[in-house]
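name: query_chain
kind: protein
chains: 1
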Amino acid sequence: MDYLPLFFDLRNKSCLIVGAGEVAARKLELLCRAGADVRIVAPAVGESVRTLIAQHKLEVAEREFTESDVTGAVLVIAATNDESVNQRVFDCCDAAGLLINSVDNPQISNVIFPGIIDRSPVLVAISTAGSSPTLARVVRGWIEARLPPGLGRLAEFIDARRDEIKERLGTIRERQRFWQRIIDGPAGERAMRGDAAAAGRAFDSELSAQLSAEEPIAGCVLLVGAGPGDPELLTLKGLRAVQGADVILYDNLVNAEILEYARRDAEKIYVGKKRKFSGIRQEEINALLVEHARAGRNVVRLKGGDPFIFGRGGEETEVLAAAGIDCTVIPGITAATGAASYAGIPLTHRDVAQSIRFVTGHRASDRTNLEWPELAKPGQTLVIYMGLPGLEDILAKLIEHGLAATTPAALIEKATLPEQRIVIGDLSDLARKVRAVNIVGPTTIIVGEVINYRLR
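structure:
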């Protein structure tokens, strides 16, 4: 390890910046945010630095650097474009045992500035030991994308309650277990959203349950939309839920790669259904959700697409509410938007479609029961889920109820995945074209003039 990472309290501490150009301005802004007492020495002061000087009422000496300038400083930054000056500043600080950073020059520095992710009071620092600031910036972007914006609110929520928990829970193990449940559960989620009242209620309920010996602590259920297939379309909130789950119940349409994000000790239960194979019944899925939550586990119900669009999420939330189990819904990108985007088809266009209808083509008693006169109206886009088994019947019914046989229609198989296939036709010939290429699903059907505007 070339450098020991530390977090330095600079509040009201004397710091010196030598130089006053754009590079100096970036460091000056950081020091001001940290509450440092900053002095500046430079023969010329740039506009950005002058603005910060006025904003923070800083001391500036518009002259050349002298060795006595470092006296009293706990941190010195050399930020000039003259390497000989930066070397002199380093030599003075090195002789006096002071902390010195020469910007973009680790050879004449004994401290370096990391890339910073600020979710105050949570801070993350990334460093490449000065070897590549660009790489540090890229890594910072990777990490920052994974951290929720409300992480600082969660830290403040926890900090305000630490003394209470230390007093009421006697052992370190008890406290660790409790805080893990707060962070992974509904209290943490609501604190990050900024809903302090709801977070407080969830916190009190969790603490009351842990202090009670009468029954185990209830878990919670998160209904998570996994998106249409591409694992990168999983939302960041959905990813955090999967990573924190004790148990994951997942559908047939969930990409197995998403399960790789789960903890290795998480229990994964397949509850999917396939055409011509009923699989596990919905009542059994509901019972599993209640059973695992009542056993004190954090349960993720992972569904392809979005839980509330043909995903039976409403049925599951109803059962969980009746059982008194806390439930949070995390939406996902539904198949309609995912399939259309990856196929290059706009679902709306002001010239030809001002509305969209999402319907399911699932056949009950070998019939597709839909409001055909409404679906056959012009000026809209029709998206049909689960329509492959009844494709010929669906297309014929639309023609029968008034849509022109030449109306464009498309079928997308395995949308958003590398093996995605698209069949383009119209109401009169799409079924024939689909049969010719042996489509097996899952599929999404799009009908409407928007297909003529497809990005090719």
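note: The mean pLDDT is 91.
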